[in-house]
What we know:
Maf protein, 7 strands
Amino acid sequence: MKIVLASNNRGKLAELQAMLAPLGVELVRQADLGVGEAAEPHCTFVENALAKARFAAEHTGLPALADDAGLCVDAFGGLPGVDTAYYATQFGYEKGDDNNVRALLEQMQGIADRRAAMVSTLVAVRSPRDPEPLIAMGRVEGEIATERRGTGGFGFDPVMFIPEFGKTFAELPADVKNAHSHRGRAAQQMLALLRERWLR
């Protein structure tokens, strides 16, 4: 089965391809099919993921899988949340992972409560008007480190410290990160849903 991934993020594609490999599903990035980015006007992960999945299905004629993920920092009332990818732009930096980490470390200076969660919501639709989208959510709690650690992963991985491992996501081997990350947890649920609902 071929499914379009409603994202142009190569990091997400690589992670999700690895996680969904047991199903024999072929994931194709929407950009590789000439499809641009969908609008993400909503304030929750699930609404944005659903909008992206419906957009990709409509423009490709394929079933679509979308991921909306982000960082929710307790001290900021759960923000940046759905605006995670654009976090740095609020502080005069250009959009990008490196600048996001820089801006976060600057904004967290002097803040004692460093608790945060990485959240991933995966939504799959068979068609643009699918009345029964598959929805899977994964969440990992940790703390924002005081400096970058590790070279793996992407996004906020270098500063997302996971107490269970005593390391940041960027310090973990890819297979360990994929098994325990927010996206990994959501993907395991999605794997089960796809098997049960679409691939019987």
